[in-house]
Each structure stands twice: as structure tokens, then as C-alpha cells.
Predict the structure.
Amino acid sequence: MSEIKLSPQLFDDVQQAVIQHDAEASEDVGLLLQYLGAVTGYLLGSQQFERAHKDAFLEELSGFMQHVMDDTDKKMQPPPPPAGDAMGYWKPPAKG
């Protein structure tokens, strides 16, 4: 695949284009994603490629989407607490 340039503005523009077409997509992320999937499927299906080439490209796209989702999901997670920091007081064990 070619190198692409992703940006928050691109994501917003694409979402707004879908919402202009169907306002319900602003409240239903599943519907928004269905539109994006349908556009991708339509564009790929309308190309004059051999079917095997289309299937291979679709599989590659699926893997790419998985990679982007995993990377984005990881960035959205709160950072883990610093290792070694503790709260409270330590008391030595009582001698018996």
C-alpha cells in the first residue's frame, strides 16, 4: 500500500460527509462505519481488477484497519501508573 497522510481534519471531514447524507450517523457509530464499509466495498468492486486481486486487496485492507484500530486503541488507554510508587506507611513487623 502507498503511504497515506492521516489527520484529525480528514477524519472529521469524512464523518461530516456521511452525516450530511444521513443525520442518524451522528448518533450511531455502527451506522457511520457501515457507510464507510459500503463506500470501500463499492469503490473496490467497481475497479477493473481480477476478482482474486480484489479479494487480496480487501484482505490487506482488513489487516491495515486492524492495525490502525489497535494502534488507536492503545493510544486511548490511560497510561499505567509509574512502577515503584506506593502510598501509605510501612511498619516493621513486631518483635515477639
